[in-house]
Amino acid sequence: MGSSQPFLVEQCIWALGNIIGDSYNSRNYVLNEGIMHPLLRVIAENSTLQVLRCATWALSNLCRTKPQPEFIHLKPAVETLCNLVKSEDHEVLADVLWALNYISDGDDERVDEIMIYKIDRRLVELLYNPMRDLQVPALRTIGNILTASPAHVTKMIDSCVLAGFRNLLETETASIVKETCWALSNVCAGTCYHIEQMLQSGIIPILINIMYSGEPHVRREACWAVCNALANGKENHIEAIVRLGCITPLVNMLTVKESIITAIVISAIESILRLGRNYFSSKGSVNEWAKQVEGVGGLRYLFDLQSHSNVVIAKRSAHILKTYFPDALDMDSDDDSDEDYQQNHHVEHHDFNNHTKVAPVHYNFNQQGPPPQGHRQGPPQGPLPIHHQGHHQGPPQGPPQGPPQGPSQW
Asked: Helical H runs in 116-187?
């Protein structure tokens, strides 16, 4: 790669890039042999566009493949990649964005290093790019940044990322909407300022609507976002979200056969009922939000969840019934048919069969080990896991295994 002839440099990089892309063992071998600094030197010299494209492709391959390389090997490339994010060449920019996505998928040190180079506004700008191979890695890189410190989340909000997210939520592509909801769930896992900005952006009503009508896998991500906002917001934030109509879709989500979703929804409903009890009792009236939960069939689901295989979910459901619906406890749900229950208690029937049925996930919330894969542990209070990082690992095959076109001709 030290040749003065661009053609030879390109051929060497192409060969090494394919070796790197073969497996993580091959990648680690080439890294340990010292490819990084010569490769970065080639990019800095920028002799021809074709060599630059080939070099950024190889650099992207160095950053990809699980398990990730140790960050100490990738850190020298961060400044170069962040400078190249300004490139106007489509192929170079696509590979650079995928490389940044791979690097940022990890601990906070990785995100801290990337944010030094102030690429936040450029990433937000790329959310509006109609080309999916640029838009998707930009979105995923931003999503990874949002799993890091609250300061980085604030920086992204100040760079108008919420406006970019709102634009993406209006797309008809379910995968883009899902990725956007995932990123938003981590905004809602932040501070009260972040949740206030979410409310002011007008995104919360869109998320609630997605919980009503989105595809099942998209509903789950929107549910995470709304539940995180309810868990981390102040009382005025919770009241605002309730008045935007979150109760019915939250109750609907209790039909999803996935323990982690059931757990966060129960926690969110309990937060609403607790605030409603205090709010309405101060006005000398009944808890209207409890009546809403009952009116959309919430009691039936809570009764059923008392026999859930997860002990924590079962006990939490029983606690909610005992605390907020004491008059319902004298009902023998085993003796009453669903028809009798609806006639006696005027419970509106909803057809929730459009939820995808998935195998239950039996997760012990009291376990001492790490939280379920794809979720970062939440704040000290409450059982709600907050950040769910790392379940978007990039495209199934990653960048191509060779440059877009064949080798240069002799």
From this structure: 120-126, 132-145, 150-158, 161-169, 174-187
Instruction: Note whether 58 and 19 are within 8 A (CB).
Output: no
Residue the block writes with tokens 């080639």: 42
Residue 66 pLDDT class (50, 70, 90 cuts): confident
Q: What is the pLDDT of residue 328?
A: 75
Q: How far apart are CA 280 and CA 138, in angstroms?
A: 45
The type of residue at 313 is: I
Look up residue 7 and give its two tokens: 């053609």
**How many other C-beta atoms are found inside a 10 Å radius of the C-beta of residue 109?**
12
Tokens of 83: 């400078």
- Please say whether the beta carbons of 272 and 230 come within 8 A: yes
pLDDT of residue 3: 78
Degrees to nearest 5, angle at CA 332 with 327 and 334: 145
Lowest mean pLDDT among 116-130, 325-339, 376-390: 376-390
Q: Among 392, 358, 362, 393, which residue's Cα sits nearest to residue 185?
A: 392
Rounded to whole angstroms, the Cα distance separating 86 from 92 reads: 10
Query: Can you tell me the mean pLDDT for 93-100?
Result: 97
The angle, 0 to 180 degrees and rounded to 10, between the axes of the packed helices 49-63 and 24-32 is 110
- Please state, in angstroms and rounded to a whole number, the distance separating the CA atoms of residues 11 and 407: 7
Beta strands in 239-376 (DSSP E): none
Would the pTM of this model clear 0.85, i.e. be above it? Answer: no
Please name which of 133, 153, 129 lies closest in space to residue 143, comparing C-alpha atoms.
Answer: 153
106-157: pLDDT as tens digits: 999 999 999 999 999 999 999 999 999 999 999 999 999 999 999 999 999 9
DSSP one-letter code for 330? G
Q: 378 by DSSP, 3-state: which?
A: coil
